[in-house]
Protein backbone atom coordinates (compact mmCIF):
# COMPACT_ATOMS: atom_id res chain seq x y z
CA UNK A 1 0.00 0.00 0.00
CA UNK A 2 1.23 3.46 -0.86
CA UNK A 3 1.90 5.72 2.15
CA UNK A 4 0.08 8.46 0.27
CA UNK A 5 -3.19 6.51 0.65
CA UNK A 6 -2.70 5.80 4.36
CA UNK A 7 -4.48 7.98 6.89
CA UNK A 8 -2.06 10.26 8.75
CA UNK A 9 -2.53 8.34 12.04
CA UNK A 10 -1.94 5.01 10.23
CA UNK A 11 1.25 6.35 8.69
CA UNK A 12 2.48 7.55 12.09
CA UNK A 13 1.73 4.14 13.62
CA UNK A 14 3.62 2.41 10.80
CA UNK A 15 6.57 4.75 11.43
CA UNK A 16 6.47 4.01 15.18
CA UNK A 17 6.26 0.22 14.83
CA UNK A 18 9.56 -1.64 15.33
CA UNK A 19 9.57 -2.97 11.74
CA UNK A 20 12.43 -1.49 9.70
CA UNK A 21 10.17 0.15 7.07
CA UNK A 22 8.87 2.77 6.86
CA UNK A 23 11.87 4.46 8.51
CA UNK A 24 13.87 7.67 8.36
CA UNK A 25 14.18 7.72 4.56
CA UNK A 26 10.41 7.65 4.11
CA UNK A 27 9.89 10.22 6.90
CA UNK A 28 12.44 12.53 5.24
CA UNK A 29 10.65 12.31 1.88
CA UNK A 30 7.25 13.05 3.49
CA UNK A 31 8.74 15.98 5.42
CA UNK A 32 10.11 17.30 2.10
CA UNK A 33 6.67 16.93 0.52
CA UNK A 34 5.14 18.86 3.47
CA UNK A 35 7.68 21.68 3.07
CA UNK A 36 7.00 21.79 -0.67
CA UNK A 37 3.24 21.88 -0.04
CA UNK A 38 3.60 24.86 2.34
CA UNK A 39 5.61 26.74 -0.30
CA UNK A 40 2.86 26.01 -2.84
CA UNK A 41 0.32 27.48 -0.43
CA UNK A 42 2.29 30.73 -0.11
CA UNK A 43 3.05 30.89 -3.85
CA UNK A 44 -0.70 30.50 -4.52
CA UNK A 45 -1.85 33.38 -2.27
CA UNK A 46 -3.58 36.23 -4.11
CA UNK A 47 -1.41 38.88 -2.43
CA UNK A 48 2.35 38.90 -2.92
CA UNK A 49 4.98 40.89 -1.00
CA UNK A 50 4.50 44.17 -2.92
CA UNK A 51 1.84 42.98 -5.42
CA UNK A 52 3.98 43.60 -8.50
CA UNK A 53 3.57 41.65 -11.75
CA UNK A 54 7.22 40.53 -11.49
CA UNK A 55 6.56 38.93 -8.09
CA UNK A 56 3.43 37.22 -9.39
CA UNK A 57 5.33 35.81 -12.38
CA UNK A 58 8.20 34.62 -10.16
CA UNK A 59 5.80 32.90 -7.76
CA UNK A 60 3.89 31.27 -10.61
CA UNK A 61 7.17 29.92 -11.99
CA UNK A 62 8.16 28.66 -8.52
CA UNK A 63 4.79 26.91 -8.15
CA UNK A 64 5.30 25.30 -11.56
CA UNK A 65 8.59 23.86 -10.33
CA UNK A 66 7.30 22.87 -6.89
CA UNK A 67 4.24 20.90 -8.01
CA UNK A 68 6.13 18.00 -9.64
CA UNK A 69 8.65 18.00 -6.76
CA UNK A 70 5.84 17.45 -4.26
CA UNK A 71 4.55 14.47 -6.27
CA UNK A 72 8.10 13.14 -6.72
CA UNK A 73 8.83 13.32 -2.96
CA UNK A 74 5.56 11.54 -2.19
CA UNK A 75 6.51 8.67 -4.51
CA UNK A 76 10.09 8.59 -3.17
CA UNK A 77 8.58 7.93 0.29
CA UNK A 78 7.24 4.63 -1.10
CA UNK A 79 10.40 3.88 -3.12
CA UNK A 80 12.58 4.32 -0.03
CA UNK A 81 10.71 1.63 1.88
CA UNK A 82 10.83 -0.77 -1.12
CA UNK A 83 14.57 -0.17 -1.59
CA UNK A 84 15.25 -0.90 2.06
CA UNK A 85 13.06 -4.02 1.99
CA UNK A 86 15.15 -5.21 -1.00
CA UNK A 87 18.37 -4.80 1.02
CA UNK A 88 16.99 -6.94 3.83
CA UNK A 89 15.72 -9.58 1.39
CA UNK A 90 19.22 -9.77 -0.13
CA UNK A 91 20.81 -10.29 3.31
CA UNK A 92 18.38 -13.19 3.90
CA UNK A 93 19.54 -15.06 0.76
CA UNK A 94 21.16 -18.50 1.37
CA UNK A 95 24.93 -18.63 1.83
CA UNK A 96 25.69 -22.37 2.13
CA UNK A 97 27.84 -22.82 -1.00
CA UNK A 98 30.48 -20.53 -2.53
CA UNK A 99 28.14 -19.96 -5.45
CA UNK A 100 25.33 -18.92 -3.12
CA UNK A 101 27.72 -16.66 -1.23
CA UNK A 102 28.80 -14.93 -4.45
CA UNK A 103 25.20 -14.52 -5.64
CA UNK A 104 24.21 -13.13 -2.23
CA UNK A 105 27.08 -10.62 -2.24
CA UNK A 106 26.07 -9.41 -5.73
CA UNK A 107 22.42 -9.11 -4.66
CA UNK A 108 23.37 -7.14 -1.52
CA UNK A 109 25.57 -4.77 -3.54
CA UNK A 110 22.80 -4.17 -6.11
CA UNK A 111 20.20 -3.59 -3.39
CA UNK A 112 22.46 -1.25 -1.39
CA UNK A 113 23.08 0.75 -4.56
CA UNK A 114 19.31 1.13 -5.02
CA UNK A 115 18.93 2.09 -1.36
CA UNK A 116 21.58 4.78 -1.92
CA UNK A 117 20.09 6.16 -5.13
CA UNK A 118 16.58 6.66 -3.70
CA UNK A 119 17.58 8.97 -0.80
CA UNK A 120 19.99 10.73 -3.21
CA UNK A 121 16.93 11.47 -5.38
CA UNK A 122 15.12 12.73 -2.26
CA UNK A 123 18.09 14.98 -1.50
CA UNK A 124 18.10 16.30 -5.10
CA UNK A 125 14.36 17.04 -4.94
CA UNK A 126 14.74 18.87 -1.59
CA UNK A 127 17.67 20.90 -2.95
CA UNK A 128 15.51 21.97 -5.93
CA UNK A 129 12.62 22.83 -3.62
CA UNK A 130 14.98 24.95 -1.48
CA UNK A 131 15.95 26.95 -4.59
CA UNK A 132 12.26 27.73 -5.20
CA UNK A 133 11.87 28.45 -1.47
CA UNK A 134 14.20 31.42 -1.81
CA UNK A 135 11.93 32.91 -4.51
CA UNK A 136 8.86 32.32 -2.32
CA UNK A 137 10.64 33.96 0.64
CA UNK A 138 11.60 36.97 -1.51
CA UNK A 139 8.27 37.49 -3.30
CA UNK A 140 5.60 35.90 -1.09
CA UNK A 141 3.02 37.61 1.16
CA UNK A 142 4.70 38.77 4.35
CA UNK A 143 1.77 37.49 6.48
CA UNK A 144 2.86 33.95 5.53
CA UNK A 145 6.45 34.49 6.64
CA UNK A 146 6.26 31.88 9.41
CA UNK A 147 4.85 29.31 6.94
CA UNK A 148 7.85 29.89 4.68
CA UNK A 149 10.11 29.52 7.73
CA UNK A 150 8.52 26.17 8.60
CA UNK A 151 8.93 25.06 4.96
CA UNK A 152 12.65 25.92 5.03
CA UNK A 153 13.09 23.98 8.28
CA UNK A 154 11.26 20.92 6.96
CA UNK A 155 13.19 20.92 3.67
CA UNK A 156 16.52 21.28 5.45
CA UNK A 157 15.60 18.44 7.85
CA UNK A 158 14.49 16.32 4.88
CA UNK A 159 17.69 17.07 2.94
CA UNK A 160 19.92 16.26 5.90
CA UNK A 161 17.89 13.13 6.71
CA UNK A 162 18.11 11.91 3.11
CA UNK A 163 21.88 12.56 3.13
CA UNK A 164 22.25 10.51 6.34
CA UNK A 165 20.50 7.62 4.57
CA UNK A 166 22.67 7.97 1.45
CA UNK A 167 25.82 7.84 3.57
CA UNK A 168 24.59 4.99 5.76
CA UNK A 169 23.97 2.73 2.71
CA UNK A 170 27.06 3.99 0.88
CA UNK A 171 29.16 2.54 3.72
CA UNK A 172 28.36 -1.03 2.64
CA UNK A 173 29.15 -0.51 -1.06
CA UNK A 174 32.35 -1.70 -2.74
CA UNK A 175 32.24 0.32 -6.00
CA UNK A 176 34.75 3.02 -5.03
CA UNK A 177 34.09 5.25 -8.07
CA UNK A 178 30.34 5.28 -7.34
CA UNK A 179 31.01 5.93 -3.66
CA UNK A 180 33.28 8.89 -4.36
CA UNK A 181 30.93 10.44 -6.94
CA UNK A 182 27.88 9.99 -4.67
CA UNK A 183 29.62 11.43 -1.62
CA UNK A 184 30.78 14.44 -3.66
CA UNK A 185 27.26 15.09 -4.97
CA UNK A 186 25.76 14.67 -1.49
CA UNK A 187 28.17 17.19 0.02
CA UNK A 188 27.54 19.64 -2.84
CA UNK A 189 23.73 19.37 -2.53
CA UNK A 190 23.89 19.87 1.24
CA UNK A 191 25.80 23.14 1.03
CA UNK A 192 22.78 25.43 0.48
CA UNK A 193 20.63 23.26 2.83
CA UNK A 194 23.07 24.02 5.65
CA UNK A 195 22.61 27.74 5.03
CA UNK A 196 19.59 29.92 5.84
CA UNK B 1 -12.30 16.80 10.14
CA UNK B 2 -9.24 15.83 12.12
CA UNK B 3 -6.01 15.84 10.09
CA UNK B 4 -5.18 12.53 11.73
CA UNK B 5 -8.06 10.89 9.79
CA UNK B 6 -7.08 12.46 6.45
CA UNK B 7 -5.14 10.39 3.95
CA UNK B 8 -1.55 11.59 3.62
CA UNK B 9 -2.15 12.89 0.06
CA UNK B 10 -5.31 14.73 1.20
CA UNK B 11 -3.39 16.35 4.04
CA UNK B 12 -0.63 17.46 1.65
CA UNK B 13 -3.25 18.93 -0.73
CA UNK B 14 -4.88 20.79 2.16
CA UNK B 15 -1.46 22.16 3.14
CA UNK B 16 -0.75 23.25 -0.46
CA UNK B 17 -4.11 24.96 -1.01
CA UNK B 18 -4.08 28.78 -0.65
CA UNK B 19 -6.47 28.72 2.33
CA UNK B 20 -4.77 29.89 5.54
CA UNK B 21 -5.31 26.61 7.46
CA UNK B 22 -3.76 24.12 7.72
CA UNK B 23 -0.50 26.08 7.66
CA UNK B 24 2.96 26.06 9.17
CA UNK B 25 1.78 25.48 12.75
CA UNK B 26 -0.06 22.31 11.78
CA UNK B 27 2.85 21.13 9.60
CA UNK B 28 5.26 21.69 12.51
CA UNK B 29 3.10 19.61 14.88
CA UNK B 30 2.85 16.74 12.34
CA UNK B 31 6.62 16.88 11.75
CA UNK B 32 7.09 16.64 15.52
CA UNK B 33 4.74 13.64 15.63
CA UNK B 34 6.76 11.99 12.82
CA UNK B 35 10.04 12.56 14.68
CA UNK B 36 8.50 11.15 17.86
CA UNK B 37 7.20 8.11 15.95
CA UNK B 38 10.68 7.38 14.55
CA UNK B 39 12.14 7.51 18.07
CA UNK B 40 9.44 5.07 19.23
CA UNK B 41 10.46 2.70 16.43
CA UNK B 42 14.11 2.73 17.54
CA UNK B 43 13.20 2.48 21.23
CA UNK B 44 11.06 -0.56 20.40
CA UNK B 45 13.77 -2.55 18.57
CA UNK B 46 14.72 -5.83 20.21
CA UNK B 47 18.45 -5.06 20.04
CA UNK B 48 19.90 -2.05 21.83
CA UNK B 49 23.37 -0.50 21.46
CA UNK B 50 25.18 -3.01 23.71
CA UNK B 51 22.15 -5.13 24.77
CA UNK B 52 22.47 -4.30 28.48
CA UNK B 53 19.51 -4.31 30.87
CA UNK B 54 20.22 -0.67 31.72
CA UNK B 55 19.84 0.33 28.07
CA UNK B 56 16.62 -1.65 27.75
CA UNK B 57 15.19 0.02 30.86
CA UNK B 58 16.22 3.49 29.63
CA UNK B 59 14.65 2.90 26.21
CA UNK B 60 11.44 1.56 27.76
CA UNK B 61 11.22 4.70 29.93
CA UNK B 62 11.86 6.88 26.86
CA UNK B 63 9.10 5.07 24.93
CA UNK B 64 6.75 5.62 27.88
CA UNK B 65 7.40 9.35 27.66
CA UNK B 66 7.27 9.52 23.86
CA UNK B 67 3.92 7.77 23.33
CA UNK B 68 1.73 10.49 24.91
CA UNK B 69 3.85 13.20 23.20
CA UNK B 70 3.10 11.68 19.79
CA UNK B 71 -0.65 11.73 20.54
CA UNK B 72 -0.39 15.26 21.95
CA UNK B 73 1.42 16.57 18.83
CA UNK B 74 -1.18 14.94 16.58
CA UNK B 75 -3.99 16.71 18.42
CA UNK B 76 -2.04 20.01 18.49
CA UNK B 77 -1.99 19.84 14.66
CA UNK B 78 -5.80 20.14 14.75
CA UNK B 79 -5.82 22.70 17.57
CA UNK B 80 -3.41 24.94 15.65
CA UNK B 81 -5.74 25.18 12.66
CA UNK B 82 -8.77 25.89 14.94
CA UNK B 83 -6.84 28.57 16.84
CA UNK B 84 -5.84 30.30 13.62
CA UNK B 85 -9.40 30.08 12.25
CA UNK B 86 -10.57 31.78 15.47
CA UNK B 87 -8.13 34.67 14.89
CA UNK B 88 -9.47 35.22 11.39
CA UNK B 89 -13.08 35.01 12.60
CA UNK B 90 -12.29 37.69 15.21
CA UNK B 91 -10.81 39.99 12.55
CA UNK B 92 -14.05 39.61 10.54
CA UNK B 93 -16.24 40.88 13.44
CA UNK B 94 -18.18 44.13 12.76
CA UNK B 95 -16.52 47.42 13.70
CA UNK B 96 -19.20 50.02 12.92
CA UNK B 97 -19.79 51.39 16.45
CA UNK B 98 -17.33 52.07 19.26
CA UNK B 99 -18.89 49.19 21.19
CA UNK B 100 -18.37 46.82 18.25
CA UNK B 101 -14.80 48.04 17.87
CA UNK B 102 -14.05 47.37 21.54
CA UNK B 103 -15.66 43.91 21.39
CA UNK B 104 -13.71 43.09 18.22
CA UNK B 105 -10.41 44.18 19.80
CA UNK B 106 -11.11 41.99 22.86
CA UNK B 107 -12.02 39.04 20.63
CA UNK B 108 -8.84 39.47 18.53
CA UNK B 109 -6.67 39.64 21.66
CA UNK B 110 -8.28 36.49 23.10
CA UNK B 111 -7.92 34.61 19.80
CA UNK B 112 -4.29 35.70 19.31
CA UNK B 113 -3.52 34.51 22.81
CA UNK B 114 -4.98 31.10 21.94
CA UNK B 115 -3.01 31.05 18.69
CA UNK B 116 0.15 31.74 20.72
CA UNK B 117 -0.50 29.12 23.38
CA UNK B 118 -1.06 26.27 20.90
CA UNK B 119 2.32 26.51 19.11
CA UNK B 120 3.93 27.08 22.54
CA UNK B 121 2.46 23.71 23.57
CA UNK B 122 3.88 22.22 20.35
CA UNK B 123 7.27 23.67 21.19
CA UNK B 124 7.06 22.24 24.74
CA UNK B 125 6.14 18.78 23.40
CA UNK B 126 9.03 18.87 20.88
CA UNK B 127 11.47 19.96 23.60
CA UNK B 128 10.37 16.99 25.75
CA UNK B 129 10.69 14.63 22.79
CA UNK B 130 14.22 15.95 22.15
CA UNK B 131 15.16 15.06 25.74
CA UNK B 132 14.02 11.47 25.12
CA UNK B 133 15.80 11.55 21.75
CA UNK B 134 19.14 11.88 23.52
CA UNK B 135 18.42 8.67 25.47
CA UNK B 136 17.42 6.89 22.25
CA UNK B 137 20.62 8.12 20.55
CA UNK B 138 22.75 6.93 23.49
CA UNK B 139 21.11 3.51 24.02
CA UNK B 140 19.46 2.58 20.70
CA UNK B 141 20.59 0.03 18.10
CA UNK B 142 23.42 1.50 16.04
CA UNK B 143 21.89 0.20 12.79
CA UNK B 144 19.06 2.71 13.29
CA UNK B 145 21.45 5.65 13.70
CA UNK B 146 20.19 7.43 10.56
CA UNK B 147 16.58 7.06 11.76
CA UNK B 148 17.51 8.79 15.01
CA UNK B 149 19.28 11.49 12.98
CA UNK B 150 16.13 12.09 10.92
CA UNK B 151 14.07 12.24 14.14
CA UNK B 152 16.39 14.90 15.60
CA UNK B 153 16.15 16.95 12.40
CA UNK B 154 12.35 16.74 12.29
CA UNK B 155 11.97 17.65 15.98
CA UNK B 156 14.34 20.59 15.62
CA UNK B 157 12.46 21.80 12.51
CA UNK B 158 9.15 21.35 14.37
CA UNK B 159 10.43 23.21 17.47
CA UNK B 160 11.78 26.11 15.40
CA UNK B 161 8.61 26.21 13.28
CA UNK B 162 6.40 26.26 16.38
CA UNK B 163 8.54 29.05 17.86
CA UNK B 164 8.16 31.10 14.64
CA UNK B 165 4.38 30.77 15.01
CA UNK B 166 4.48 31.71 18.71
CA UNK B 167 6.46 34.85 17.90
CA UNK B 168 4.36 35.77 14.88
CA UNK B 169 1.14 35.79 16.95
CA UNK B 170 2.83 37.31 20.00
CA UNK B 171 3.55 40.40 17.87
CA UNK B 172 -0.14 41.34 17.82
CA UNK B 173 -0.72 40.95 21.58
CA UNK B 174 -0.95 43.86 24.02
CA UNK B 175 -0.50 42.03 27.36
CA UNK B 176 3.16 42.92 27.95
CA UNK B 177 3.62 40.56 30.94
CA UNK B 178 2.33 37.59 28.93
CA UNK B 179 4.47 38.60 25.95
CA UNK B 180 7.65 38.79 28.04
CA UNK B 181 7.00 35.49 29.84
CA UNK B 182 6.15 33.70 26.59
CA UNK B 183 9.19 35.06 24.75
CA UNK B 184 11.44 34.02 27.66
CA UNK B 185 10.00 30.47 27.71
CA UNK B 186 10.27 30.20 23.91
CA UNK B 187 13.93 31.20 23.93
CA UNK B 188 14.67 28.81 26.81
CA UNK B 189 12.94 25.86 25.09
CA UNK B 190 14.78 26.53 21.83
CA UNK B 191 18.23 26.39 23.41
CA UNK B 192 18.65 22.58 23.29
CA UNK B 193 16.76 22.43 19.96
CA UNK B 194 19.41 24.66 18.41
CA UNK B 195 22.07 22.22 19.53
CA UNK B 196 22.77 18.77 18.10
Oligomer: homodimer
What is the number of helices of chain A?
6
E-strand count of chain A: 0
Which pair of chains forms the biggest interface, and how many residues does each contribute? A-B, 54 and 54 residues
The helix content of chain A is over 70%
Indicate the mean pLDDT of chain A: 95
Order of helix and strand elements from N to C terminus of chain A: HHHHHH
Distance linking N and C termini of chain A: 36 Å
Overall 3D shape of chain A: elongated
**Structure class of chain A:** mainly alpha
Please tell me how large the radius of gyration of chain A is.
19 Å
Strand residue content of chain A: under 5%
Main beta sheet strand tally, sense and closure of chain A: none
Low-confidence stretches of chain A: none
Can you walk me through this structure?
Two copies of one chain form a homodimer. Chain A is an all-alpha fold and about 200 residues long. Chain A contains six helices and no strands. The longest helix of chain A has about 40 residues. The first copy, chain A, starts with 7 loop residues before the first helix and ends with a helix. Chains A and B meet through helix 1, helix 2 and helix 5 of A and helix 1, helix 2 and helix 5 of B.
Amino acid sequence: MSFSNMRVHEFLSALASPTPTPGGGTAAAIAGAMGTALLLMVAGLEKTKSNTDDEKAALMAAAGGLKPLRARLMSLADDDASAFDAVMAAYRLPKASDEEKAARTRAIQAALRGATEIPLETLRACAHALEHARVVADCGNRSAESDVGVAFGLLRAAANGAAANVRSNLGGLKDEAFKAATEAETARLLEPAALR
